Structures are given as structure tokens and as C-alpha cells.
Amino acid sequence: MECDILLLESTYAGKEHPDRVEEEARFIAKVVEVVERGGIAIIPAFASGRGQDILRILYESGFDLNVHYDGMGKAVSQIWLEHPEYLDNATNFEAAFKWSRRVRSKSDRKRALHADDIVTTSGMLDGGPALWYLNRLRMDSKCAVLFTGYQAEGSGGRKLLEKRSLPIYGHNVEIHCEVDQFQLSNHAGHSQLVEFAEKCNPKHVILFHGDPETRPDLATALEAKGMIVHSPVNGESITIN
Fold first, then answer.
1. Is the pLDDT of residue 166 over 80?
2. Contact at 8 Å (CB) between 35 and 55?
3. What DSSP designation does 128 have?
């Protein structure tokens, strides 16, 4: 596992994730709360990785949930299942995928409006079926939008979190649904990044994919372990001797 040069993401430099098991439990508890009060949980999810993970969490929860799955994640999931050797637990994921009700038509989409949960793209509410559902359910305070991923500045999701409104089909509309966010990132947290780098024991570390404001926190931690850290910006070349 040791190497001379390590290229390391720094997405969550300087930040730690909450306990994963506890956060999944908090997420499921909110989903059940929404369903029991007669609402629908709209769960925006990225097409590759997050949507599949959310299906797994819902499937493994043990609750009798009526989950509809819409958006580009369906096609991505089919590709995943064609290559089970690359999945941690292909059998379990296939079961979760088949357990969900895949939305394939306009009539399926209308039926999903009577579901318990709708897992759909886009994960940041910048397009996709998520906006179609939200446009129809936005006045129902029993419903909820449950974010499970990072919402970038300027995205529809960030606007909803900050202003309780967002653009839908060219019009800025108020959202009366409950809005909540859960930290279910698949990126490593700060201490996990440091631990991984230590196990690789590199002389040089090249950091990428991170916030310029927090990346120095990770660089400092790695330098304290005796590593030489490089943080190039886009277009910059570095020379390592």
C-alpha cells in the first residue's frame, strides 16, 4: 500500500462527518415521520453513487416503504448490475433496486405522487424529474425535501436551503414542504484522509478536488506527519524530484 507519490482528494479537508450509522438512523427516522403524517419524502440524489446508496438504506431499514426511483440513476444502476464484480454487495443492491418501483413513463410519474418516498435526480435540484415532483407537491407542508448530498453555491438546492424558494421552469417559487439535510457523503472526512495518507507513507502528496479555503488544513496536518504537500491550482504544473 505504500507509495512515493500520493494523489489525494481534499473535498472534506478540515471537516469531519457525523457518525454514519447515527446519521442513517436520523435519515430513516425523518422518512418514517414524513410518511406517518401523510406526506411524501422527496429525496434528490446524484445519479451515480448517492441514489443507489439511498435505495440501499431505505431497503435495509426494515420499514414497509413504497419507494419510487426516477431519473438518470436508473440507467446508471443497470450498468452497475451488468458489472457485479465491482460492487461491494451486488446481491443486496440488486434486491434493493428491484424492490423500488422504477418510474418509466408519464403515468408512472403520476402514480409516484402517491408514494411514500421519491428518490430522483438531480441531486442539487438543478433539473431532472425532481423539479417536476417538487412543482406539484410544493404547497403541501406534510411533504419534505430531504437532501443527502452537498448543495453547491448557486444550485437550486442551496437556494432552497437558504431561501425556501428556487427557480422551477423559469419561475421562482416558494416551497412549503419541510426541508432537511443529512450528511451521507461518500467522501472521506479530514481524519480519514490523514489516516489513509499515513498508511500509504508517501514522500509527496498532491491534493486535488477541494475547497481552497480548507485545503490548507489538510496540508498542515500532512506536513506535520513529514510529508511534502503540493496544492496545485488548475493549469499549474509541478515538478517533483
1. yes
2. no
3. S
